[in-house]
Amino acid sequence: MADPAANPLPQLFGILPTGLPPITTPTSAPTPTSFLFTLPPRTYSHIAVFILPGITLPPDSAAAVYLQIPPPERNAGPLFKFLGGIGPGKESAIFKISGLVGGTTGGAGNVNGEVDMDAPETGANGQDGEVTLGISLESAASVSSQMAALRSSSSTNPSSALVLSRPTKVPTEQEVKVKLAQKIVKNAFNFLASYSGNLQNGVEVVPLKAFEEWWRKFEGRVRSDPGFLERDEGD
Fold first, then answer.
1. Locate the Hikeshi-like C-terminal domain: which residues (predicted)?
2. Which range marks the domain in which residue 70 is found?
3. How distant, in Å, are the alpha carbons of 61, 178, 184, 229 from that of 221?
4. Does one domain contain both 126 and 192?
């Protein structure tokens, strides 16, 4: 028999149901990009969802958060209601679920997704069955589109929008060297320009002692302030 510990469930997200400690291991992972968290029977009002520290989602992706709701027909399969999303630039969110899993809406405030944790209850659902939360890795465009549709169909506060931060481009080693060389040349040119003016056979000449003076000052600046070339002009 295979050892269950040999294939541990991935830990990318955490959830924090009201009244319970944080949960960081999903109950199951039906696919490599979808994770289910099933909570024990009790009444829940809010659930916080967050990306675990040290986890970086794939480029141009975000996490869609769904809540399993009762199907309208007894024999129908499980249905999932989109609550919102999290991703780079918005690593956590709080969702109000009271009224959703009990089969009623419990007021407009319950279908708006992310809300204030301290907001007063407007109709507890009184559910006593299991609650299943689904988190799915999807394209950032898809999650943002679903959030836009959710906002347009409700009065959700615009602050719940998923705003993905643009990843900072890390320059290559070659780009760093080229930029550094350009700054050194520019520094030398600006210094030596003050010594120009002498013409020999129509060619502008800078005395060697000027270059020696620049190098002496440049070397002294590097020793006293090694990072001055790495700063942008005007810093």
1. 179-231
2. 4-160
3. 45, 20, 12, 10
4. no
